[in-house]
Structures are given as C-alpha cells and as structure tokens.
Design goal:
By secondary structure, this protein is an alpha+beta fold. The chain contains three helices and four strands. The protein folds into two domains: about 35 residues; about 80 residues, no CATH class. A hairpin with a 3-residue loop joins strand 1 and strand 2.
C-alpha cells in the first residue's frame, strides 16, 4: 500500500511538471509570433550601463527603418562607443554588429539636425 501511494504521488508530480512545461512552451510560441524585421522575436530592453552616452534621437531603427514608437515593444537599447543606440529587434543587433560605423553615422547625422 505504501509503494502504491508513493508511485501515485510521483505520477501526479510528473504530470504537473509536464503540464507546466507545456504552458511555458505555448507562451514562447505566442511571443515568437509577434515579430519584426526577419522574423526574430521582439527584443527586450537592455539595461543602460553608461549614463554619459550621447542620446540616440532617431525615431526609427537605423538598421531596418522600423518605427521605435513602442508599437512593436520596447526597443533594444545599448551603448556603443559612448553613443546610445536604439534598435527594433535582436536581428538588427546582428546586422549592427557587422558594420557599426555605418549605423553610428546615421544616428549621429540625425542627432546633428
């Protein structure tokens, strides 16, 4: 009898863990359907580490041209060589990393206007 109760409890716990993991997987799928650019999931805001950086005044992502008005979620914000950079998604961060000078030039040109 004692073994039966233990096995029943273990089975119940296993079913509970499977149910929770299924709900988490469904939540991940729902987040990935909300995307921008090349199908990447929306970016979460990065913590700002340099408060002395020059502000990025662009209203659009310098990589994709998408608006940064919050309609697609918070922009991915980081500092590159004392310049704040705001991008719409992680996919654009990968493109930015390939040629940062190109995009920093766009940001700084917009800031001068």
């Amino acid at each position: 009898m004692n073994k039966t109760i233990r096995y029943t409890l273990l089975t119940g716990c296993a079913i509970g863990i499977l149910a929770i993991s299924h709900k988490l997987a469904a939540a991940d799928d729902a987040m990935s359907s909300m995307s921008c650019c090349s199908g990447m999931a929306m970016a979460t805001p990065a913590a700002e580490t340099n408060t002395n950086a020059v502000a990025d005044l662009l209203a659009t992502c310098p990589v994709s041209g998408e608006k940064l008005d919050g309609a697609m979620g918070q922009p991915l914000t980081f500092v590159y060589q004392d310049q704040q950079v705001k991008l719409c998604c992680k996919s654009c961060k990968k493109d930015f990393d390939k040629d940062p000078a190109k995009y920093i030039g766009k940001i700084r040109a917009a800031d001068k206007k």
